[in-house]
Amino acid sequence: MQASPRITYPTSTEVDFVIVGSGAAGGVMAKELSTRGFSVVVLEQGPRLLPSQFEHDEFKYMLQNGISNPSPVSWRKTEKEVARVGAGQLLYARLVGGSSVHFTANFWRLHEIDFIERSRLGSIPGADLQDWPITYADLEPYYTKVDWEVGVSGEPGPFDPPRSRPYPLPPMPVKSSGVLFERGARKIGLHPQSAPMAILSRPFNGRNACQHCGYCMNFGCEYDAKSSSLASVIPVAEATGKCEIRPNSYVRKVELNARGRATGVIYFDAQKKEQFQRAKAVVLCANGAETPRLLLMSKSNRFPQGLANSSGLIGKTLMFNVGAGVMGLFEHPLNEYRSIQVTRLSHDFYDSDPKRGFYGGGGIDARFQQYPITWAFGGLAQDAPKWGSAFKQMVGDYFNRTMAIAGHTTSLPVPSNSISLDPKVKDAWGLPAIRVTYNDHPDDLKISQFLMDRSMEILDAAGAQKKWVDYGVEPATFTAHLLGTCRMGKNPKTSVIDIDHRTHDVRNLFLCDGSSMVTSGRGQPTMTIMALAFRAGERIAGLASRGEI
Amino acid sequence: MSDQVTRRAFLAAAGAGAAWLAADPELVRAALVHARNVIAAPPPYRFEALTAAQAADLEAIAMRIIPSDDGSPGAKEAGVVHFMDKALTTFAADQKAATLAGLADLNKRAKTKWPGTTSFVALTPARQDELLKSIEGSEFFGATRGAVIVGMFANPSYGGNQNQVGWKLLGFQAHGLYQSPFGYYDAEARKGG
Question: Which CATH code fits A173-195+322-409+441-474?
Answer without folding.
Answer: 3.30.410
